[in-house]
């Protein structure tokens, strides 16, 4: 197939004067090169498209692809991850990963928690804070954990995110709202083990790749898989495969959340346990990072024995089968 690549490079936005934290979700040239090489080793032709503005220009000019491998995060708005899929759908171009509805739903952590909660998937009690009065009148039991409602890559997750009383909740809320210009998700702090779960496939055919436990080392910011810990994960975080009963339950909950949210092709689900060892849904990463050695999903896959090439091929295969492209591919190959 001819596979286009859509992505947002950090370097493309650095000239806008954005701070490093704002650029955290965007990709490095190494990620795009690794993804392109994996696709070409699988026998596909590739075409680097770039961000949504480049994609729009190419589509209007009449360019088309058999499939677009989409890792574009978008620049602004809580529906930013839905923008490239929506544009591709408007022009009838098949693509990998979830559709616009699920992309927007997944990025808004409060909306995602509402959906999985209503589907019977365990998730910590939560509320959305927009003002200081929200933090004072929330009715939740402390300690709480606060983070921006529509960010990824640990942005806004830091030591001050864990609050022990209303005064700390007000201070953290005002700080996060000012910095990220969006509401804040507040949820009961879960003090147990933390897992990340990789899932591949669609519908009833979706399955857990593996469950990895995230352990923070002595060099890490304590208790929190924060933005800083993620950025410096090689020195601060230990990733270990987990297969005990609690980890298996984390995998079951992650798969249930994946299906409830309508995720497609692949995703990564974050899970954390309460004080009694009961896993709870934290959030979904519908566009999981694809750096071969720095991103959680490829790290997880590698620990199960799945190569980076196999992971990329599995995502493409899931998208091909889901969209009924398999016969077209066979005809083209023959």
Describe the protein.
The protein is α+β, with helices and mostly antiparallel strands. The protein has 3 domains: 2-96, Rossmann fold (3-Layer(aba) Sandwich), CATH 3.40.50.20; 125-188, ATP-grasp fold, A domain (Dna Ligase, domain 1), CATH 3.30.1490.20; 194-321, D-amino Acid Aminotransferase, Chain A, domain 1, CATH 3.30.470. 39% of the residues lie in helices and 20% in strands. The strands form 3 sheets. A 5-stranded antiparallel β-sheet has the order 10-9-8-11-12, with helices on both faces. Strands 4-7-5-6 form a 4-stranded antiparallel β-sheet, with helices on both faces. The longest helix has 17 residues, at 245-261. It starts with a strand and ends with a helix. The mean pLDDT is 93. Belongs to the D-alanine--D-alanine ligase family. One of its GO terms (molecular function) is ligase activity.
Unreliable residue runs: none
Under the CATH scheme, the architecture of the largest domain is 2-Layer Sandwich
User: Averaging pLDDT over every residue, what do you get?
Assistant: 93
Order of adjacent strands in the largest pleated sheet? 10-9-8-11-12
Domain ATP-grasp: 113-317
Protein name: D-alanine--D-alanine ligase
Organism: Ruegeria sediminis
Keywords: ATP-binding, Cell wall biogenesis/degradation, Ligase, Nucleotide-binding
């Amino acid at each position: 197939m001819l596979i286009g690549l859509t992505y947002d490079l950090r370097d493309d936005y650095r000239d806008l004067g954005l701070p490093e934290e704002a650029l955290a979700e965007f990709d490095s040239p190494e990620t795009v090169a690794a993804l392109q090489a994996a696709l070409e080793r699988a026998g596909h032709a590739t075409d680097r498209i770039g961000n949504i503005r480049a994609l729009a220009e190419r589509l209007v000019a009449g360019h088309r692809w058999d499939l677009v491998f989409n890792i574009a995060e978008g620049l602004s708005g809580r529906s930013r991850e839905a923008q490239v899929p929506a544009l591709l759908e408007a022009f009838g171009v098949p693509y990998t990963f979830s559709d616009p509805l699920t992309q927007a739903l997944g990025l808004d952590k409060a909306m995602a928690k509402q959906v999985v909660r209503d589907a019977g998937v365990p998730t910590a009690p939560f509320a959305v804070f927009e003002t200081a009065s929200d933090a004072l009148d929330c009715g939740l039991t402390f300690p709480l954990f606060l983070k921006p409602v529509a960010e990824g890559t640990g942005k806004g997750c830091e030591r001050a995110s864990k609050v022990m009383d209303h005064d700390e909740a007000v201070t953290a809320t005002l700080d996060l709202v000012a910095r990220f210009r969006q509401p804040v998700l507040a949820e009961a702090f879960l003090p147990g083990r933390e897992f990340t779960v990789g899932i591949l496939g669609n519908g009833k055919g979706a399955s857990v790749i593996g469950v990895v436990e995230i352990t923070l080392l002595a060099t890490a910011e304590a208790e929190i898989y924060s933005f800083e810990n993620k950025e410096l994960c090689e020195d601060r975080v230990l990733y270990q495969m987990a297969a005990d009963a609690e980890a298996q339950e984390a995998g079951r909950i992650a798969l249930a959340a994946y299906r409830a949210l309508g995720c497609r092709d692949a995703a990564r689900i974050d899970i954390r346990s309460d004080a009694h060892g009961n896993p709870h849904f934290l959030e979904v990463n519908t566009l999981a990072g694809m750096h071969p050695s720095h991103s959680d999903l490829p790290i997880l896959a590698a620990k199960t024995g799945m190569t980076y090439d196999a992971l990329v091929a599995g995502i493409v295969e899931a998208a091909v089968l889901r969209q009924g492209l398999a016969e077209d591919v066979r005809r083209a190959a023959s």
